[in-house]
Design brief:
single chain; 14 strands; binds pyridoxal-5'-phosphate; 399 residues; 4-stranded parallel sheet; 46% helix; globular; alpha/beta; 6-stranded mixed sheet
Length: 399
């Protein structure tokens, strides 16, 4: 009998799998089979690569942050996903899934979004590939994230403001799921991170592996060696898994995921899923989540909306348990400091999400002088300017 692989079961150790309503099982199986055939098809992969290059701006550069390196005592390199079209790594996944949906004969795309970044990436890909696009977004988020709502509409997407429950991401996910169950014959649901039922964690990782593949080649050709550390911020975990995948077989490269600690690890039980989460079955998968004794999932509150997800991609839970990757947490204040430091020292304004990884890299550089540290700069920070300014004033952060 043939050995079952992750491609068949979607399990990473005990995590992952498919814990979905019966009505979704056939469509998830259809998706799994279609994805498997697409990834093995050179024509599909060539199409993906061509769009990534000409429309998406890949490969993104590997940049030696010389000023920071001098100041902090280690060689710090940034993988510049902030330079990707759309300003973050999310474009890789959105394009991959919309291409796959087209190949499957689907005629409509839906997505859900919290801060709006994934909604914008999906709307961009749908405009490019002439697919009607509906994005579910909690009404509270619609009000908070007006510029992204405007972008999505400009790109031709319909934005549905969800009025149920707390009117945020959780409620948007419920409505998107309900839509999908009713419309899956014609519609593909683009999930934005390495979470959800199989095959999503495996498929989203596949489209983000391009980050790690490029970074590894660039390290060898530009530095002449592999890094000692590879760091990335972790929300659901897609930019981190994309970077880690390039180095997973290089045991000398330590993989570190950086989670949001909110106000601080001791006082805030809402951040850092991998540091403090317990096993949960939710959103179609078995993974770690932040929950109370009754299994109620907490609302998270990190300074960066893009890291505000109370669950974690199942593969990260597995990598943590196996010891192949380790996970740390950085507070809001420290992320805001790193946001300023990278801007001032290198002329690069990082996304607040990415600033968590930058912050930990600076700490690590001082602890391990002379080491080579690779950081995934997952996105650019122009979107965060107003938010950072008011945070600094409100919390009296010393920069
Ligand atoms: C959405 C986002 C993240 C978090 O998502 P992951 O799936 O954990 O990568 C990180 N950085 C940026 C810039 C983002 O937009």
């Amino acid at each position: 009998m043939q050995k079952l692989t992750n491609q068949d079961t979607g399990f990473f150790g005990e995590y992952g799998g498919t814990y979905s309503p019966e009505a979704l099982m056939p469509i998830l199986e259809e998706l799994r089979v279609a994805f498997r055939s697409a990834e093995a098809d050179p024509d599909f992969m060539r199409g993906f690569s061509d769009v990534m290059r000409d429309w998406g701006g890949r490969p993104t550069p590997l940049y030696h942050a010389e000023n920071l390196s001098r100041e902090y005592g280690a060689s710090i390199y940034l993988k510049r996903e902030d330079l990707m079209h759309g300003g973050a790594h999310k474009t890789n996944n959105a394009v991959g899934q919309v291409l796959l949906a087209k190949r499957m004969g689907k005629t409509r795309i839906i997505a859900e979004t919290g801060a709006g970044q994934h909604g914008v990436a999906t709307a961009m890909a749908c405009a490019k590939f002439n697919m009607p696009c509906t994005v579910y977004m909690g009404a509270v988020d619609v009000a908070r994230q007006a510029p992204n709502v405007e972008r999505m509409k400009l790109l031709g997407a319909e934005v549905v403001a969800v009025e149920s429950g707390g009117k945020t991401l959780k409620d948007a996910i419920n409505d998107a799921m309900r839509d999908w169950i009713a419309s899956c014959d014609t519609t593909h649901y683009v999930i934005g991170t390495v979470a959800g039922p199989h095959p999503f964690p495996t498929m989203v990782k596949f489209f983000q592996e391009i980050i790690g593949r490029e970074a590894r080649e660039q390290c060898l050709s530009q530095i002449g060696r592999l890094p000692d550390y590879a760091l990335a911020c972790v929300g659901g975990g897609s930019n981190a898994i994309g970077l880690f995948s390039g180095f997973i077989n290089d045991s000398s490269v330590k993989l570190i995921g950086v989670e949001p600690a909110g106000h601080g690890l001791e006082t805030d039980k809402h951040g850092a899923v991998l540091c403090k989460g317990t096993v949960a079955v939710l959103h179609g998968m078995k993974t770690l989540g932040l929950q109370d004794e009754d299994g109620q999932i907490f609302e998270t509150h990190s300074i960066s909306a893009g890291l505000d997800y109370p669950l974690i991609g199942p593969e990260h839970a597995y990598l943590r348990d196996s010891g192949r990757a380790s996970y740390v947490a950085v507070t809001d204040d420290d992320a805001v400091r790193a946001f300023h430091i990278l801007s001032k020292h290198e002329g690069i304004i990082p996304a607040l999400e990415s600033s968590h990884a930058i912050s930990y890299a600076l700490k690590l550089a001082q602890e391990k002088p002379g080491s080579t540290i690779l950081v995934n700069l997952s996105g650019r920070g122009d979107k965060d300017l107003a938010h950072v300014r008011s945070y600094v004033e409100e919390h009296n952060v010393t920069i």
